[in-house]
């Protein structure tokens, strides 16, 4: 599930929480018992999967029903976060909710819209150590674990092997200075000065070239120890924005605007990388499935994304986010719902089957090591990034992804030449984020 779609869904759903927090059935504070073997129960599962993705999920749900024949699963796809939130508000919540929007996790947990799973985890002695710390971070908010991870997205570098070979480049760049050099070598301008092929597009919000995906490669932290915004205090942000601006100036902002406006849709076969109009880009593991289906003859490779020259120890890590699953407030069968949540997120064969069907990263060490996991060399790159101790994510917040949106807006102004002083601009951005957090409750 791509991050662009995640952020769009999160923005729509965020406005519904004020109402959702004040209505709907109670969730209880303990762990509801699992149904007896002779007790017939129907568990309703809502997700935003559709078409082949929904079929892949339903196949895995069938595996659960085979193990628990007394629990019938009613799976409903095309149910996004605003529908889930409205159902909680109206007292008609499903038993299990699957969300693509980790940016809403802080709201789900802090509002009680999704129930705290800690009593179930403690009762059943679930080993969370099987899950990387970054993934545990994006499924928990301030000690409340209201979600479990259901596969992950991991981000790295995609590069065009034919372009590299033609230019005599034998390996992908490991540092950002190397990336800059390679990007300039692989860029081709038309006679009128417009961009024919871009080595790397520094434009924020071009596909997955987003602040949260880029930040780990400078080790740029979103928050200070006191929880305030670190935009003005962490040097990684200034370094990141400086690098983006220098590469933007190389291309020319107007040329980049024309190029990105004409680029194909991110999830179509017209994707600029897949069409050979971009030599390198930052993207998730799911792109391997799109390429296999849409442009199978594309000669490409994957690698960890390059890191700041001063922070080469970061190489091999990257950004992660993912699909989350929880039990909404008002679920009619929470005990049976938990059995399903536990199965989907901790059973090795279930995770592997789902990963093979959806082409996302399984979220436990055992599933990553399973010989049943289908992975070519390009997909294994993301498995290695996921296993890196340098894996990073964005912090959960009670007001959703507003701090990311503010940062994206600032980045666009900065790269467009509308911010005369970067230090002052970052200080103003930090204040904007802190003021907004104070309104939403830190």
TrEMBL record:
Where mainly located?
A: other
- InterPro entries named among the record's database cross-references: Bact_solute-bd_prot1, SBP, TAT_signal
List the subcellular locations: Cell envelope
**Which Pfam families does the protein's record reference?**
SBP_bac_8 (PF13416)
Q: Write the record's keywords in alphabetical order, separated by commas.
A: Signal, Transport
Recorded hits in CDD domains, A to Z, give:
PBP2_UgpB
**Organism's domain of life?**
Bacteria
| Signal peptide limits | 1-18
Please tell me whether the keyword Ion transport is annotated for this protein: no
Q: Does the keyword Protein biosynthesis apply?
A: no
The family annotation for this protein states: Belongs to the bacterial solute-binding protein 1 family.
Job description of the protein: Part of a binding-protein-dependent transport system for a sugar.
Q: What is this protein called?
A: Probable sugar-binding periplasmic protein
